[in-house]
Amino acid sequence: MLIRVDPASDVPIFAQVAASVRADAAAGRLRPGDRLPSAREVASSLEVNLHTVLRAYQELRDEGLVDMRRGRGAVVTDAVEPLAQLHDDVIALAQRARALGLSPDTLASLVKETFR
Amino acid sequence: MLIRVDPASDVPIFAQVAASVRADAAAGRLRPGDRLPSAREVASSLEVNLHTVLRAYQELRDEGLVDMRRGRGAVVTDAVEPLAQLHDDVIALAQRARALGLSPDTLASLVKETFR
DNA sequence: CAACTGTTCTAGTATTTCTATAACAGTTGT
DNA sequence: ACAACTGTTATAGAAATACTAGAACAGTTG
């Protein structure tokens, strides 16, 4: 399980970590019952603080995507299924947007605003 | 032309202003050639600082969605067409996501990460 | 010329993000 | 029981970002 982060991005690191996990879940690379790498592991390999990773994990917990308990770690829940179901649609939309010359930020913002 | 903002949101005001304009463009409520309300007007009606609105406008300019010149204001460009073309797809995706119980933030993040 | 536009500048406050360190408290496997 | 692993909580501080404030500048329009 690999979590990627771009230190040069203006997107907060904790948000990038959460987004990375979400994307893996949507792609089916993370299934219900799978355990995320421990926060300390991720913090060490990304060379960021433990709290930064934990904040990302807590965000995922707030969304119901993982269960967290001390001693056990963060475990993926059934709530990732909806993400996986949307995966193909999201890919299709992203491809169209790219073909039209839109940026990821523009499309994401549009989606978010449309949803509200 | 109405720009909405939620002061309680954790999303920066300037980003909300830009997102509001993008959504209007995607919905066809803003067409190429239309002029945005002056930054001072918007700042006054939203009770925020002029610079906050200008930052939003500059973001839209960076995306190529508006042309800005002093004295004239911010004018919508042809670049809004791609947004309008995606409008129906975005609405459809948002509806599916909502039906699946996802939040706007979750979906937006997923879209952004998928695009990269 | 007057009234409008965005642009630029300086400056300060508040909030958010990230780091750092430490201790605490469940869980798991030996 | 014990060691080694988990997340949780607390405190503190540094750095970056968001927002405000006021002023002056420079094109555009009627």
What do you see in this structure?
2 copies of one chain form a homodimer. By secondary structure, chain A is mainly alpha-helical. Chain A has a single domain, classed as Arc Repressor Mutant, subunit A. In chain A, 57% of the residues lie in helices and 7% in strands. The first copy, chain A, has 5 helices and 2 strands. Chain A has helices at 13-26, 39-46, 50-62, 81-99, 104-115, and strands at residues 66-69, 73-76. Chain A has a two-stranded antiparallel ribbon with strand order 1-2. In chain A, a hairpin with a 3-residue loop joins strand 1 and strand 2. In chain A, helix 1 crosses helix 3 (50-62), helix 1 (13-26) packs across helix 4 and helix 2 (39-46) packs across helix 3 (50-62). The longest helix of chain A has 19 residues, at 81-99. The first copy, chain A, starts with 12 loop residues before the first helix and ends with a helix. At the A-B interface, helix 1, helix 4 and helix 5 of A face helix 1, helix 4 and helix 5 of B. Chain A binds a DNA duplex (30 and 30 nucleotides) through helix 3.
What is the fold's blueprint, element by element?
Two copies of one chain form a homodimer.
Chain A: H1 13-26, H2 39-46, H3 50-62, E1 66-69, E2 73-76, H4 81-99, H5 104-115
Antiparallel strand pairs in A: 1-2
Helix pairs in contact in A: 1-3, 1-4, 2-3
Chain A binds a DNA duplex (30 and 30 nucleotides) through helix 3.
Mean pLDDT over all positions of chain A = 96
What is the overall number of helices of chain A? Answer: 5
Q: Which parts of chain A are unreliable, with pLDDT below 50 for 5 consecutive residues or more?
A: none
Main beta-sheet strand count, sense and barrel state of chain A = 2 strands, antiparallel
Question: Helicity of chain A, in percent?
Answer: 55-70%
Identify the CATH class of chain A.
Answer: Mainly Alpha
